[in-house]
Amino acid sequence: MKPVQGSAASEERLSSGVLGSVDITFMVLAVAAPMAIVVATMPLAFAFGNGVGVAGAYLLSGIAITLFALGYVKIIPLIRNAGAFYAIVSASFGKVAGLGSAYVALISYVGLCSATLGALSYFATDILHSLGMTSVHWGVVALVSIGALALLSWFRIDFTAKLLAIALGAEVLAILLLDFAIIVQEGFIAPSIVFAPAAVFGPGLGVAAIYAFNSVIGFEATAIYQEEARNPSITVPRATYAAIAIVSTFYIFTAYSFTVAEGTAVGAAAAEDPGHFVFGLASRYLGNWAEIAISALVVTSAFAAILGLFNNSSRYVYALARDRILPSSLARTRAVNGAPFAAGLPIIAILVVTVSSFALAGLDPLLSLTTALTGFGSVGLMLLLCVTSFAIPVFFLHHNARLTVQTALPILGGVMLAVGSGLSVLNYPLLTGTDSAFINSLPILLPIIFAAGAVQATWLKRNRPESYGRIGLSRPVV
Predict the structure, then answer these.
(1) Neighbour-count burial of 184, counting CB atoms closer than 10 A to its CB (0-12 exposed, 13-18 middle, 19+ buried)
(2) Cβ-count burial of 422 within 10 angstroms (0-12 exposed, 13-18 middle, 19+ buried)?
(3) What secondary structure, in 3-state letters, does 61-77 show?
(4) CB under 8 Å to 267, separation ≥6 — which residues?
(5) How far apart are the C-alpha atoms of 229 and 1, rounded to whole Å?
(6) How far apart are CA 358 and CA 448, in angstroms?
(7) Cα gap 114→106, rounded to integer Å
(8) Cα gap 213→382, rounded to integer Å
């Protein structure tokens, strides 16, 4: 089966052959933001979820995303497009659904980028204030961070990958050091206790599953970078499996270690102060220096995630502009290194407007900006993961290919992801952490955004059939 191809002008080509499996793996893991997951959301899973069984909830989410990946890596070589969800849904369910999915993916990535920028600004400003620089406003920190994004978008993607590798390595090593310190000082507890069905499927699993399933979003980004990968048919599957294996094992082992530290009372311990739960463990098992180090690494982890989310967003803009859905000028790349700098400009503008609006309104970056958009972006990407899981077998059936175990298993993964998505929507206030009716109603925008893309695609079909035919098909000829 040959990949569906389109064409692209030379000034609209991404730099090909510059990313290896390791580069892509680090970029995807940076978006997953393991430090933020461990520090911010894992304690909530312990506090309000199934307590001792939290590690099992992360195991279930790992199984779901692995089932998805089995078919995902099979379809990637056949649909080469920087807009991953966009192209796959277009090829499986039609261009109308594809364009709707593209806008949901783009807005979700930008929303998560804005939310993470709010968290970075909050924690960075807190550190600066503790150092005596009390006059520094969080809005200034945010704008400086956006400036750094704009600068980095000018460079070739492999330069960004190296920066993300350094940041990611530091945060993962810090948490693993804490994990091993706990195990060395406390010993092991029987895995049969932590992973016992009674513990995993006990009261609170639904709440724990919300945080566990939201921790696996971002792995679809391996396909976003396939046009810039070396030998993508090999490097992208490797990066996909490596990212899933690394982060799933990391979350499961860390949840297990925290359970070792607190025993069967881990839920109650986390509930006392979820925001400082991990910092307290770091101080107890490693010393005060570790608490300070993790505080600093939360900031670098947040910037790494912002950079990864910005790259994902800009490549969706690039893919849509190359297909002439958005203005073609946004598909321009730098001739010297293939960086899609033009596609990043509207993302930069949106981030500046968002941050400035919240700052001028005197709102708190963490309690307002981050709270409002984290759940919104997460739910959007989870729903798209679910849709894409079902799109994979449909694609192979449409192309008269026999379904194999590998291409059919995503259906099971899709069912599991659908359960996780449903739990997230039904318990949305747990994701946002607020009682604000406005913030908790934001998911209503997702079907509206999808409908806007579907309406545009329908209009293009009637009035600009050539542009309609390009939806989801463009691919640079190298």
Answers:
(1) exposed
(2) middle
(3) HHHHHHHHHHHHHHHHH
(4) 46, 47, 49, 50, 51, 52, 204
(5) 21
(6) 24
(7) 12
(8) 8
Instruction: Tell me the C-alpha to C-alpha distance, in Å, between residue 304 and each of 36, 298, 433, 439.
Output: 11, 10, 24, 26
Closest CA to 475 of 2, 105, 1: 2
User: Where would I find the beta strands (DSSP E) of 141-279?
Assistant: none
Q: Give the rounded distance of the alpha carbon of 102 from its chain centre.
A: 15
Report the alpha-carbon distance of residue 53 to residue 104 in Å, rounded: 33
Contact by Cβ (8 Å): 77, 233: yes
* pLDDT tens column, 199-225: 999 888 888 888 888 788 877 778 878
pLDDT class of 12 with cuts at 50, 70, 90 = low
Query: Quick one: CA dihedral 461, 463, 466, 467, positive or negative?
Result: negative
Strand partners, 229: 19
- Residue 17 falls in which region: left (phi positive, over 0), alpha (psi -120 to 50) or beta: left
CA distances from residue 362 to 120, 123, 252, 359, 438 in whole angstroms, order as listed = 17, 17, 39, 5, 18
Q: State residue 19 phi and psi, 5-degree precision.
A: -115, 130
The structure tokens listed for 471 are 């939806």
**Amino acid type, 79:** I
Q: Coil, helix or strand for 229? A: strand
pTM of the model: 0.86
Q: Is the pLDDT of residue 443 over 80?
A: yes
No. of helices (H) and no. of strands (E), the chain: 23, 0
What distance in Å separates the CA atoms of residue 458 and residue 289, rounded to the nearest whole number? 58
CB 105 within 8 A of CB 83: yes
